[in-house]
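Mods, move this if it's the wrong board.
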Amino acid sequence: MFEYEIQKINQAELIRQADRARLARQAVDARRAARRAGRRSAKNAPEGPVYSLRSLFDRAA
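Not the wrong board. Structure tokens:
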């Protein structure tokens, strides 16, 4: 009977760990989706367009 109770406790702990890992993965996925949505709506971006440094310097002879 004692081994059965220990097994049930271990099983419950594994389920809790899996739930925490699933929640963390969902948070990462939500942040990634929010970043992608922010990139798609470039009109609303506060930074504005980015230009390369090549346009700032003349070409050497």
